[in-house]
Amino acid sequence: MIYSLNKQRDAFEVSDYTEDLRSEIVVPEQLFGLPVNAIQDRALTDALELNAITIPTSITTVGKRVFRGCDNLLVVEWRMLRQP
Fold it and tell me: Which domains does the chain have, with CATH numbers?
């Protein structure tokens, strides 16, 4: 996975993937002490190797066409905050 700092430089975003992407990935809650709070437009487009992804509660924004062309994606686990 490739992560980029956001414009405010206070959080990371998933911005792209590399050719050695594993079939199952877990997006981390934090990197270097900063939250990972977004998945940018088309960040995982055409990631044919991807079978499963776990998205943490820290993700508040998911861009357009993130999973377009992910023909082998079977499981999306989106962890949500529980209401008291």
Answer: 2-78 (3.80.10.10)
